[in-house]
Design brief:
The protein is built from ten helices and eight strands. The chain is an alpha/beta fold and 269 residues long.
Length: 269
């Protein structure tokens, strides 16, 4: 199925599932360059965890974060819209039955399966890639705030509109700059197959959702743009590159130079 065909699908679950028939979530974090996003996110959210935290992994994909955090001693509820992702998580749970993970298929717009104030930390590391209206984005944040404890924390990820243009044109498609996938005046990228935000637009979404931003990070930095070079590094150089990324990723001047953005927020506004 092509992206044009997927765009015509009206049902949200069917459309998002079709997108992930093209993008393999299971293999997404396999390379050195792709691991930067995962390791940065874990490093930052760990600041806000206490032993035995209850965590909601919303938009859990195939469970990379849920499994890592459960192995660290936390209690996880993993929710994803895509059925095959949930089945993958359940298979991994079956192979490691000592892990405290509940895997459910569900939408970020309806968390009625969970009581108010259930979680110390809510991870929203995928849903905002797909919610293309302000109404749906705010509904998602409203539900997240409800199930998060008043003194809890919420981590949200976005795809950075401005870096997408650089990555698409310099890595994937040399004709991109001359095509019509973005507004040639404003540089706003078409919101498909993902939804794209500028750094400031991310802040607006979160603040309008009643969240107080504590940490902002360029979660993968130059990793997608420079993937081939990063993947070719020897292990010692890779470790040094990772430390350099950690050094720069929260600097304001580096924030926009990243395909993925991470915001950790307080639920006390």
């Amino acid at each position: 199925m092509t992206f044009s065909e997927i765009a015509r699908i009206s049902d949200d679950t069917e459309r998002v599932s079709a997108v992930y028939d093209i993008f393999n979530e299971e293999k997404r974090l396999a390379s050195k360059s792709a691991q930067v996003e995962f390791l940065t996110t874990i490093r930052i959210i760990s600041r806000y965890l206490k032993p035995g935290s209850k965590i909601l992994d919303l938009g859990a994909g195939t469970g990379a974060y849920s499994l890592y955090l459960a192995k660290a001693g936390h209690s996880l509820s993993a929710v994803d819209l895509v059925e095959k992702h949930v089945l993958s998580i359940r298979q991994k749970i079956a192979e490691q039955p000592d892990l405290d993970i509940l895997a459910l298929q569900g939408t970020a717009l309806d968390l009625s399966a969970f009581a108010a104030g259930s979680f110390d930390l809510v991870l929203c590391l995928g849903p905002l890639y797909h919610l293309d209206s302000r109404q749906s984005q705010q509904r998602c944040l409203e539900e997240i705030r409800r199930v998060c404890k008043p003194d809890g924390h919420i981590a949200c990820a976005f795809i950075n509109n401005d870096m997408v243009i650089a990555t698409e044109s310099l890595r994937y498609n040399s004709s991109f700059l001359l095509e019509d996938s973005y507004d040639h005046s404003t540089f706003k990228v078409e919101d498909f197959p993902f939804v794209f935000h500028t750094v400031e637009a991310c802040r607006v979404v979160l603040r309008e959702g009643g969240l107080r931003i504590l940490t902002e990070a360029a979660s993968d930095g130059l990793s997608e743009l420079m993937a081939e070079k990063i993947n070719s590094l020897d292990d010692a150089s890779w470790e040094r590159w990772l430390q350099y990324h950690f050094y720069t990723c929260e600097k304001p001047e580096f924030l926009g130079s990243s395909n993925h953005l991470l915001f950790v927020c307080a639920n006390d506004k």
